[in-house]
Amino acid sequence: MTALFQQLPSVDKILKTEQGEQLIQTFGHTAVVNCCRHLLCLAREEIKSSQTIPHFFSSFDNTITEIQKHLTNQQQVQIQSVHNLTGTVLHTNLGRALWSEAAQQAAVTAMSQNVALEYDLDVGKRSHRDNYISELIHQLTGAEAACIVNNNAAAVLLILSTFAQGKEVIISRGELIEIGGAFRIPDIMAQAGCKLVEVGTTNRTHLKDYRNAINENTAFLMKVHTSNYQICGFTSEVSEQELTELGKEFNIPVITDLGSGALTDLSQYNLPKEPTVQENLAQGVDLISFSGDKLLGGPQAGIIVGKKELIQQLQSHPLKRVLRCDKVILAGLEATLRLYLQPEKLAEKLTSLHLLTQPIEQLTQQAEQLKATLETLLKDDFSLQIESSSAQIGSGSQPMAKIPSIAVTISGKNNGKLTALLARFKSLSTPVIGRVENNKIWLDLRSLANIEKLLTTLKELSA
Ligand SMILES: *Cc1c(COP(=O)(O)O)cnc(C)c1O
């Protein structure tokens, strides 16, 4: 054992060689020293436990190669690219909406150059970072103004904190939802220090339920778009229109959390209809909040639109400063919204809408390419098929709505083979993420951003 320990080089000895000096040139002294110490530590443990010397100290070249590998890997970002073949287009765990080309460019400019973020170039004076977007939202929806925060959860928190602290908010029992990841309407109400007044029942709420709950301590009437589940059968809810009429009668605002929130009618693309911001405004809703990275197809953000007077109150609440967006997000969001000014080009330029509207024939073509590539790489342990599939919008939008899609399915001679293949897919340089259903791997093409890149990645399977 002592002999083995003596075979290990000292840190100094490694550094003083020509290759050692080259490593220092590339990675810097600190990282190389730390890496040498780490490898030596591993080696001592291996000698102690199994009386062998690890392969990376079996020769000097091996040691240098190991250090190089280690220090290169150290710079590998873990939030890495994956191929989304889950069939869920706005997949929360895979980062939701992909940014459009225009949004990416705006973001790169904002992060690498000085930008007129809070500076009005016309008058040469300080302005407000939400102004550009507020004007665009006005143009697109007719809303008087907008306030932008970190995400829609933040938007709801800011609204409640600004208007309802120490007061009551009336909401239907059928809308007390959990979004997932600990965002529950009752909890967020408690966090904002307001009292939740639940009215109606899980399946039925009537206008008189709201009316009976109104008192002098009522801050506003709230509606939450229950985007991630559906109540079917004997149901009844109060429309925004009826609610805003009631609100006017008592001079109380009506506020909706629209969740995904669409700025355009999705049924024109044969997609399931989501209530639009414009419809909510037309129904007289005073404030509406929605996400930037769901159906809108932009960066993570919470967008609050509506009455100027109310927006101004949100803007001056101290929490707004806590929840505000940075320049990169605002630039990306502005570029995303500008695409909506040219509606005929939207499905081409807005990546998420492009994915959702790809024709089946196009997906079938991609499936054929994918199947052919896999057939040459997987040998005959597996059987491959092209099948119709049901994709989803994702992010809680329309969970019941199935979007027609095409998948390549893989079944194995046994389950062990399929599990091993899934693991191989995940270990590729750009991991491939599918879904498992009925003992098959489903590679759904609806959610895939780039077929060429996928085919290139898959070639690694032959190695
Ligand atoms: C998604 C969603 C939220 C949370 O939005 P984030 O942007 O993810 O914070 C809140 N309310 C509803 C109704 C939602 O669908």
UniProtKB/TrEMBL annotation:
Its main location: cytoplasm. Residues 5-40 form the L-seryl-tRNA selenium transferase N-terminal domain. GO terms for cellular component: cytoplasm. It is an enzyme of class 2 (transferase). InterPro entries: PyrdxlP-dep_Trfase (IPR015424), PyrdxlP-dep_Trfase_major (IPR015421), SelA-like (IPR018319), SelA_trans (IPR004534), SelA_trans_N_dom (IPR025862). It catalyses: L-seryl-tRNA(Sec) + selenophosphate + H(+) = L-selenocysteinyl-tRNA(Sec) + phosphate. It comes from the Bacteria. Pathway: Aminoacyl-tRNA biosynthesis; selenocysteinyl-tRNA(Sec) biosynthesis; selenocysteinyl-tRNA(Sec) from L-seryl-tRNA(Sec) (bacterial route): step 1/1. Its cofactor is pyridoxal 5'-phosphate. It is found in: Cytoplasm. Coiled coil: none annotated. The modification N6-(pyridoxal phosphate)lysine is found at K294. It holds the Pfam family Se-cys_synth_N. Keywords: Cytoplasm, Protein biosynthesis, Pyridoxal phosphate, Selenium, Transferase. GO terms for molecular function: L-seryl-tRNA(Sec) selenium transferase activity. The keyword Cytoplasm applies. Its EC number is 2.9.1.1. Gene3D superfamilies: 3.90.1150.180, Type I PLP-dependent aspartate aminotransferase-like (Major domain). One of its GO terms (biological process) is conversion of seryl-tRNAsec to selenocys-tRNAsec. PANTHER family: L-SERYL-TRNA(SEC) SELENIUM TRANSFERASE (PTHR32328:SF0). Converts seryl-tRNA(Sec) to selenocysteinyl-tRNA(Sec) required for selenoprotein biosynthesis. Belongs to the SelA family. This is L-seryl-tRNA(Sec) selenium transferase. It comes from Pasteurella bettyae CCUG 2042.
